[in-house]
Each structure stands twice: as structure tokens, then as C-alpha cells.
Amino acid sequence: MASKLGEYRDTPGKKSQEIKEDLFKYESGGTFWRVTYDSPNKIPVFERMKGTRVWDVDGNEYIDTYGQFAASCLGHAPEELISEVIDQMKTLMHISDMPNIPRAKLVKELAGIGPGEMKKDAKVQFEIGGSAAIELAIQIAESYTPHPQHDFISFFGAYHGRTTGALTVAPNVYFRDGMPSMANRVTRIPYAYCYRCYYDMKYPSCNMYCVKHLKRMFESPEFGIYDPKTKTNFISTLIVEPAQFHTGGIFPPKEFMQGLREICDEFGIVMIDDEIAIGMGRSGKWFCIEHYDVTPDLVVTSKALSGGIWPLSAVIGKSEVMSVWDDKPDKHMGTWHGNAVGCRAALTVIDQIKKRNLLKRNEEMGNYFLDGLKQLQKRHEMIGDVQGIGLGLSLELVRDRKTKEPAEPETIEVLKKALDYGVLICRAAYYGNRMTFMPAYIIEKSEIDTILDIVDRCIDSIEKKG
Ligand SMILES: Cc1ncc(COP(=O)(O)O)c(C=O)c1O
């Protein structure tokens, strides 16, 4: 019997199990779905979707709290997007990396919404998918900075994708193990995950020690990045997310991002802002970095950019940096770059966000959701930390609020239970114990209430089990 949202079902149903047999047999391992819910067995097979809801092949209904890795910003199968995309497919579907009308309109739109000062004079380049756009951004940064600036600074807990360049700059040793990497050197430093400060300090009395630590690394050649005597800088690029979602929805203090900007300015380092997950309006502003009053040199966007209908990504950047290939045509070419259908999808997303005032709505709904999570935190000792800006939110489960011992098995249990009541939630964290929420921009208050109620009951039952 198919179950509605909030009704119990034992996931996965019979049909899901049957269909997965072929996946187990014919698809090679290493795929993401095999680790969701800590095993390949629990996840059902999905069949259809609409708005904020998804149905599995056994007819069970789910509410999607993570918007398919934040891509499906207008909800699932939104009519406006589908009709624009179909119209574009009938008119001009694929013309490889050539000028077309949606492409021309979109570069203008994106240049106009670049964060902070950037929008005064910005340029755009396209890619397909997030990882490829990270490659593009680091290539632009490398081309812009003079020799010997070939090295990178990136952060613990960062995620930039799985292509070789993206893997090289990110820290995760499991992802990098056995993979090729770029020759460039990478200095990885702690992110401002203040709930678990790497230096065991407390914000704000820490006076942003993490930023000071980075600054100190420029004081001696022994620290590997700069020679103060000769003023020789090895770092071309600092790549940072304004909120880390692959490691659980961690938002740093404003001073962190501002401190990084100052260091980049002082040493002529290109600051890349990876907004693949949180950008394009989710935070209540077009780009999350605007909440920190910082203008990066390059911002990378994808996912929500084309609303989950067509893979598209872009680097938007200050004209001066982006112009580095102006006299070098064909430095960046790709069969799908500037694809008319992808660009038309992105134009529709931007148009819908503007017409429906979704930036303001995301801010309001996000505050409502955050408030609800904070209420849950008051009721459950297990909830150690809650964070969020706009519709990008997270909570962390611990065994003890004082010791902050991560409650990883309990988090998995809560998510499995939530799935059995029809709530799809993503787990991500340094220690496997955070839940992230990145719903579609169309989510209603009553739906947020339902999600909170089910999460509340699931945590309750785990807490009672002890
Ligand atoms: C912050 C961030 N950067 C890069 C990527 C990689 O994007 P893609 O999976 O489209 O290659 C992701 C994907 O989750 C991401 O969240």
C-alpha cells in the first residue's frame, strides 16, 4: 500500500528492491546513491516528482528537503521552466559553443547580478556542471597571476567537485585516494567551523585567530607560501565557499570572509567564491557572499542556475581578471558551452526569481525554518548546533552537548526514520552527524511545519531509545 507524506512505510518497497537489482548487477560501484543512508539498501527508486514532492515506484510520497543537491530551486518539474525549455528545443537546441540569443541575454543578466562591486563591471564564461566550472575558475586565476604564483589555498571541509582540479584543491583524503592530482601545491587551512573550532577557541573572543594564523603564514619562507624578504608570493588562488554544505551547512562569521578578502588584496591573490551549492538566491541574496559584504574576484555558480532541468555552470568575475584570455581565443572551448537550452533555462530561473520576489521569500521562509530548528534544539539535548541563512540550513546531533561527541549512528537512524515517514533529508558533516536542508524556493510554511514535526518525532524516538 502506498503511503502519503507523514504515514509510515518500510522503505524500500518491493518494486524498488526489484528495480535496484539491475543497478546492483550492471552499474559499477562508487556511485553516491550507494552511501545514502549509510548503505545501498535503504534508498528507494524514484519515479516521478512535482513541486516539493517526489514519489517512489511503490507509490510512496516524500517531501524533498534538499532540492536535489540544491539544484531544483523552482521545485520539481516547474511548468514555466519546462515550457520555456521545450520552446527553446524546438527553436534552436544545440549549436556548439556558438553565439545564440539566450547565451547573449544570459551573460548580460549574470554580469548584472554578480556579488557586490563585481556587478559594476563583470564578465562571464560558461561550463557544464559545478566541477568543470571550478576547473575553469582556477584556470582563469592561474592565467591571471604572474609566475611564481601557481599554488592554492583551500579549506578543511571544502568540497569543489570530483574532476582532477577540483579534487586537488579540496581536502577529503577518501575522495583523493588513488586519484590523479594537479602538480600545483595546495595549502589547506581550517575553515571557521566555530561550533568545533579547530583551535579550540570561542567566537568572538578568538578575535578570528584562524584568519590571523593564515596571515602569519606570510611572515617567513619557512611557512611555504611567501618570502617576505623578496616579496615572492607563491599563491595564485584562494578558493572558499561562503557556507560549506558538503560538510554539513557550516556558515562562518562575517569577519572570516572579510579577513580572507584583506589577505587576498594584500598579496595579489585571486579569491574564488564557490557558490555552486548556496548561490542563485537561496540565501535571500543572489550570492551568499553578499551577506558578508565581500566582493570576490570570481564567483562560480551552477545547480540552481538552471533549475535542475539542464546542466549549466558559469564563472562570473571582475572584468579585469576575466579579460585574461581576451587576446587568446579558443583558450576555453567545449561542445556544450553556452548551450541555448541551458541558457534559456537559466534565464527562466532568473526571471521567476525576480517576478515572484523569491529572494525576499527565501529570506522569510528561511527565518521561519531556522526559528523552527531552534525550537527543536530547545527540546532536544541531542541537537548541539543549528545554523542557516535563507533556505540553506543545518543541524548537528551530538551525544553530549558539553563534550560534543558526534552522534553519527544516531543521525543515520533519524534520517532512516524520517525517510520511512516520507521526508528526504541529506546527511553531510566532518563527523557524519549533520543534516542539511536546501528545499525548493517554493516551499510553504505548512510544509516546513510538517518537516519539523517529523524530524522532532524521529529525534524523540532515538533519544528515548537512549
Ligand atoms: C560547493 C560545491 N562545489 C562544487 C560542486 C561540484 O558540482 P558538480 O557535482 O555539479 O560537479 C558541488 C556539488 O555538490 C558543491 O556543492
Treating each run of at least 4 consecutive H or I residues as one helix, how many helices? Answer: 14
Give the termini separation.
32 Å
Net shape: globular
The CATH homologous superfamily of the largest domain corresponds to Type I PLP-dependent aspartate aminotransferase-like (Major domain)
**Category from helices, strands and their pairing:** alpha/beta
Q: Quickly give the CATH architecture of the largest domain.
A: 3-Layer(aba) Sandwich
Radius of gyration computed on alpha carbons: 22 Å
Strand order of the largest sheet: 4-12-11-10-9-5-6
Quick one: biggest sheet?
7 strands, mixed
Count of individual domains: 2
Q: What is the number of E strands?
A: 17
CATH class of the largest domain: Alpha Beta
Description:
The protein is an alpha/beta fold and 466 residues long. The protein folds into 2 domains: 14-64 and 359-465, Aspartate Aminotransferase, domain 1; 79-355, 3-Layer(aba) Sandwich (Aspartate Aminotransferase, domain 2). The protein contains 14 helices and 17 strands. The strands form 4 sheets. A 7-stranded mixed sheet has the order 4-12-11-10-9-5-6, with helices on both faces. It has a 4-stranded mixed sheet with strand order 1-2-3-15. The protein has a 4-stranded antiparallel sheet with strand order 13-14-17-16. The protein is globular. The structure holds pyridoxal-5'-phosphate.
